[in-house]
Design goal:
Number of strands: 7
Strand order of the largest sheet: 4-1-5-6-7
Strand content: 5-15%
Order of helices and strands: EEHHHHEHEHHEHEHEH
Shape: globular
Largest sheet: 5 strands, parallel
Low-confidence stretches: 233-241
Radius of gyration: 17 Å
Number of helices: 10
Helix content: 40-55%
Oligomer: single chain
Length: 241
């Protein structure tokens, strides 16, 4: 089974540092501060930056987007100490990861709108790296389209481990409706956790297969993830390879 964790709002609270990174990146890239609200929830880093440019009447050319992403990686690296001071790991995150790591039939990684670089910074700052296989993760630097990230991760995992990870054996854990919709659109089992801006009712309403109030109960998290196995016969048989 492939378990894919969202990062911001699910495993960590970045304390507003991500929004600051977008603002600093935009200012350095364009020479002007952003004058529109920054709404990153559930979007990829490149998609947020592209939206910011368009809101300000700036054409998001391929060259400019490449500059923007590289610049944001540098900016976020410089803000690592601020992230440590302002943010925190979500209560129970480390124990939840450890509980799944104890199962031989589970591969854990991340599915996140962050670039791979920024994802590693965020997870490393809060000591959550141990049991996560970053090689098979899916990142905003892989594609701007959140819904496409599930296939990216499945493809990487299949290549590395030599066996297919069909949608029915893939679990996406996230805190926003965009996470849940991305999972469901790809036939993936979804577990919502109300650790971010959205409550249990909101995540249930968009079709999460299971919803938890937070990550404090590791046994409940493992039980929710293993619910994917109970539903496998009713899921798509689409497989890679």
């Amino acid at each position: 089974m492939l378990v894919l964790w969202d990062i911001d709002g699910t495993l960590i609270d970045n304390g507003g540092v991500s929004r600051q990174a977008y603002a600093v990146t935009f200012t350095r890239l364009t020479g002007q501060p952003p004058t529109h609200p920054i709404v990153p929830a559930g979007k990829t880093d490149p998609a947020v930056l592209r939206s910011m440019l368009r809101q300000h009447g700036i054409e998001a050319t391929p060259d400019l987007m490449e500059q923007a992403v590289h610049l944001m990686n540098d900016v976020f690296e410089s803000l690592a100490s601020r992230l440590r001071d302002r943010g925190h790991a979500e209560p129970g995150a480390q124990a939840a990861i450890a509980a799944l790591a104890g199962r031989a039939d589970v591969v854990q990684s991340v599915l996140t709108g962050n670039t791979r670089h920024n994802a590693r910074v965020k997870i490393s700052v809060f000591g959550l790296t141990g049991a996560l296989d970053y090689e098979v993760g899916a990142y905003g630097s892989d594609t701007e389209v959140r819904a496409d990230l599930v296939l990216v991760a499945r493809t990487k995992a299949t290549a590395k481990y030599g066996s297919p990870f069909p949608p029915a054996a893939t679990v996406l854990i996230g805190d926003t409706p965009r996470d849940i919709k991305a999972g469901r659109s790809s036939g993936t089992y979804t577990v919502g956790v109300a650790t971010g801006e959205y409550g249990v009712d909101s995540l249930t309403a968009v079709g999460a297969d299971a919803v938890l109030p937070d990550l404090r109960d590791a046994d409940a998290l493992v039980g929710a993830v293993l619910g994917a196995r109970r539903k496998q016969p009713a899921r798509s048989s689409d497989e890679l390879g």
